[in-house]
Amino acid sequence: MIKVGDKVHHFMEMHKHGKVVDVIVENNSLLTTGGTSSSNVLMIVEYTDNTNKKLLRRISLGDLMKVYD
Questions:
Q1: In angstroms, rounded to a whole number, what is the distance separating the alpha carbons of residues 51 and 49?
Q2: Is the torsion defined by CA of 57, 50, 18, 16 positive or negative?
Q3: Within a domain: residue 43?
Q4: Coil, strand or helix: which one is 62?
Q5: Which has more pLDDT, 23 or 28?
Q6: What is the pLDDT of residue 5?
Q7: Average pLDDT over residues 16-33
Q8: Which domain holds residue 50?
Q9: Between β-strands 13-26 and 31-32, what pairing exists: parallel, antiparallel or unpaired?
Q10: With contact defined as beta carbons under 8 Å apart, do 37 and 27 qualify?
């Protein structure tokens, strides 16, 4: 389970580590023949580069992996 404050990385960019600063849950009201679809969970991840600039990215929860150091 990933929560605010955890160190994470995107599964396609394993060399870039960031920190989760916020969680956004987008409700989906799409009605299909099988029922309603699930809501989207997005994480706001803060990356810091070599010049100490902060970069925020919205990444889907399923694309993130937790970093254990």
A1: 6
A2: positive
A3: yes
A4: helix
A5: 23
A6: 95
A7: 88
A8: 7-66
A9: unpaired
A10: no
Asked if residue 1 belongs to a domain, the reply is no
pTM: 0.80
Whether residue 60 is contained in a domain is answered as yes
What count of residues does the chain have?
A: 69
The residue assigned the tokens 């803060």 is 46
pLDDT tens column, 28-62: 777 778 777 778 899 999 998 777 788 999 999 99
Find how far residue 58's CA is from the centre of its chain.
Answer: 6
* Position 31 in a domain: yes
CA dist 30 to 44, 53, 59, 60, Å?
A: 24, 38, 21, 19
Q: Which run of H or of E encompasses 57?
A: strand 54-60
Number of domains in the chain: 1
